[in-house]
Hints:
Blueprint: H1 2-10, H2 15-88, E1 97-100, E2 103-106, H3 129-142
Antiparallel strand pairs: 1-2
Amino acid sequence: MHELMRAGEQLGLSGTDLQAFIKEQQTTEREEREFERQAKKEERGIQERQAQAKAEEQKRDIELKKLELEIKKTELEARLEVFYRRSQNTDEDNDDDVDNDEVVVRRGVGCHSSVKGPKMSPFDDRNDMDSYLHRFERYTLNCKIG
């Protein structure tokens, strides 16, 4: 306020003119501060909306990846079930072909003896999918399937 008084006096104002000048300058400064506050408030609002949009996008990406993994898991479980059923089906002749889901598996001589070999346990969520599939591949090679 003292600065405004000095500025008004330097302009040659005194009395009521000086008071009017000071009030006018104070009103102008108050409006400028209010404008700055509103601009900062709007900027914070924009930043918050951007952060929310980014968080929602990340959430959608995570959900999409979860769905993709669930689909892949379901497909692998279905393939595993097909392979498991084929490995359990030892009553067929050696020359028979089994065609299911565009996969052809021929039964080998090794799994068709009168003594039944070891059977694989079905896959469950506690097992690691890669190690289970590796075990399955070894089993099929030992039984001469495929």
